[in-house]
From TrEMBL:
Alphabetized UniProt keyword annotations: Membrane, Transmembrane, Transmembrane helix
Natural source organism: Cirrhinus mrigala
Cell compartment(s), UniProt: Membrane
Pfam families linked to this entry: HCO3_cotransp
Stored InterPro entries: HCO3_transpt-like_TM_dom (IPR011531), HCO3_transpt_euk (IPR003020)
Protein name: Bicarbonate transporter-like transmembrane domain-containing protein
């Protein structure tokens, strides 16, 4: 749509990412991790929990549509043989 070559674009993204990683390694940017608050960790954990809960509910809804419940059970006939 934009007239860009897919492989050329991927190569540029890969080279840019490699450059940034080398820059972070050269400046020892990993030492800055101690300044990240616990809030960031909690936010990512919450996001993962929401994703798992959403996927579980989505599967339950799909199973309910595929195998619907029989809502017209007669409990009086449940124990008869």
């Amino acid at each position: 749509e934009y007239g860009l070559s897919y492989l050329s674009l991927r190569a540029c993204i890969g080279l840019w990412t490699a450059f940034l990683c080398l820059l972070l390694v050269a400046t020892d940017a990993s030492s800055l991790v101690c300044y990240i608050t616990r809030f960031t960790e909690e936010a990512f954990a919450s996001l993962i929990c929401i994703i798992f809960i959403y996927e579980a509910l989505e599967k339950l809804i799909h199973l309910g549509e595929t195998y619907p419940f029989n809502m017209n059970n007669n409990l009086e006939k449940l124990t008869t043989y």
